[in-house]
């Protein structure tokens, strides 16, 4: 797997994931199960890889520079 999630993107994913999980835990709504989706952004942030980004050709992390020959 090639890394395709940058630092700012990772931080945002973790914040959104925690917020969704908090909704699942603390909500009294019938829709609280939707908060379990928060596991996905947290997992992709920790792995630094997003399969959807690969399909769409998106990359938010800087590319490593190749040494000049």
Describe the 3D structure:
Helix 1 runs antiparallel to helix 2. The longest helix is centred in the first third of the chain and has 20 residues, at 7-26. The chain has one domain (7-56). The protein has 69 residues and is an all-alpha fold. The model has no long low-confidence stretch (mean pLDDT 92). It contains 3 helices and no strands.
Into how many domains do the coordinates divide?
1
> From the helix content, strand content and strand pairing, which structural class follows?
mainly alpha
Portion in strands? under 5%
Poorly predicted segments: none
Mean pLDDT: 92
User: What characterizes the major β-sheet?
Assistant: none
Helix content: 40-55%
Number of strands: 0
Q: Tell me the quaternary state.
A: single chain
Listing every helix as H and every strand as E from the N terminus to the C terminus, the arrangement reads: HHH
Report how far the terminal alpha carbons are from each other.
26 Å
The rough form would be described as elongated
Number of helices: 3
Radius of gyration, taken over Cα atoms and rounded to an integer in Å: 15 Å
Brief account:
The chain has 69 residues and is mostly helical.
Keywords:
mainly alpha, 69 residues, 51% helix
Explain the layout of strands and helices.
Blueprint: H1 7-26, H2 39-47, H3 51-56
Helix pairs in contact: 1-2
């Amino acid at each position: 797997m090639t890394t395709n999630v940058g630092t700012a993107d990772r931080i945002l994913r973790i914040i959104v994931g925690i917020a969704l999980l908090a909704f699942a835990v603390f909500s009294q709504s019938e829709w609280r199960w939707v908060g379990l989706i928060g596991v996905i952004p947290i997992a992709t942030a920790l792995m630094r890889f997003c399969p959807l980004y690969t399909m769409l050709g998106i990359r938010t992390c800087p590319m490593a520079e190749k040494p000049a020959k």
